[in-house]
Design a protein that fits this description.
The longest helix has 17 residues, at 81-97. This protein has helices spanning 5-19, 28-41, 47-55, 59-68, 81-97, 115-126, 145-153, 158-162, 167-173, 185-188, 222-234; strands at residues 103-109, 135-142, 155-157, 174-177, 180-183, 191-195, 210-213, 241-244, 257-259, 266-269. The chain is 43% helix and 17% strand. It is α/β, with parallel strands linked by helices. The strands form 2 sheets. Strands 6-2-1-7-8-10-9 form a 7-stranded mixed β-sheet. α6 links the parallel β1 and β2. The structure holds S-adenosylmethionine. S-adenosylmethionine binds at residues 19-20, 70-74, 78, 110-112, 116, 142-144, 147, 197-199, 214-216, 245.
């Protein structure tokens, strides 16, 4: 049974407030496909029942609804180029800029199940000869507890490791465990994962020299994108660099960042 317009609006408002996700009536089918399994798991029969429960302030349900509506797709070395740029341009730049303190902090904001953060860890591991004496931190954050659990476990299916991960790195950094692949404990220990909503105050996370915030702003409306970019910029030093996804830009949204010439997808502070 379809949701009444006021019920749709209730869910849309809740999602926007909690995660930034904008859902328009033409995407109503997404509510159906993602929330009905949740409803059934809780012994509810319809989406309207979910709305009724949330109106009665069922906080756990509201959290699960928000989480179920996030799109979590990710894969190792996604889009390839950003990681080549990281290895060939960003890392050498940071090694020279931070030669004094020998410390670099990297943030995979909206890290989903961890592939982006672990791809960076693999690059750093491959470059370890140049990094002796350096303290390099990688922090992965996401709003989805389920994805963070998966990221922390570092256990990926055959399908997941086949998407983007070169076979040489698979063999080197993963061990077969039943039908899945377990990430090497050394790599696992290079990344810290924590729950963090990008709409919240980001200050407690500290400053980051390089920020990967890819394929999450696309789900937000313009004011939310601007607000998130503004708060991310406050967590970066003047020479910090920001990565966005292939379908994302700062142009017309934020004056805080500008594209780095000839480096698609990378932004420096204005
Ligand atoms: C499509 S995935 C992108 C993963 C990775 N960055 C990549 O490009 O492969 C988007 C992620 O953003 C997370 N997300 C959505 N809204 C968020 C918010 N307000 N704060 C933090 N993470 C959020 C989702 O849970 C999801 O894991």
């Amino acid at each position: 049974m379809a949701l009444r317009p006021d019920e749709f609006d209730f869910i849309a408002k809740l999602l926007k407030e909690r995660s930034g996700l904008v859902i328009t009536p033409d995407k109503g089918y997404l509510l159906e496909s993602r929330l009905m399994p949740l409803a059934r798991a809780r012994g509810l029969n319809t989406l309207s029942d979910i709305v009724t429960k949330m109106k009665a302030h069922d906080e756990a349900l509201a959290r699960d609804v928000t989480e179920a509506m996030t799109t979590n797709e990710s894969f190792f070395f996604r889009d390839d180029k950003p990681f080549t740029q990281f290895k060939e341009m960003v890392l050498p730049l940071m090694l020279s800029a931070r030669a004094g303190k020998k410390a670099i902090r990297i943030w995979s904001a909206a890290c989903s199940s961890g592939q982006e953060a672990y791809s960076l860890a693999m690059i750093l591991k491959e470059e370890q000869a140049r990094l002796a004496g350096w303290h390099i931190e990688i922090v992965g954050t996401d709003i989805s507890m389920e994805m963070l659990e998966k990221a922390k476990a570092g256990l990926y299916s055959q399908f997941e490791v086949q998407r983007g991960l070169p076979i040489t790195l698979l063999v080197k950094y993963f061990k077969k465990k039943d039908e899945s692949w377990q990430i090497d404990p050394g790599l696992r220990s290079m990344v810290q994962f924590k729950e963090w909503n990008l709409l919240r105050d980001l200050k407690p996370l500290g400053q980051f020299d390089v920020v990967f915030c890819r394929n999450v702003l696309i789900y937000f409306d313009q004011p939310t994108k601007a607000q998130v970019l503004e708060s991310i910029s406050k967590q970066m030093p003047a020479d910090g660099l920001l990565y966005l996804g292939g379908a994302e830009t700062v142009l017309g949204i934020s004056e805080r960042f500008k594209p780095v010439a000839n480096q698609r997808g990378i932004y420096s502070q204005s």
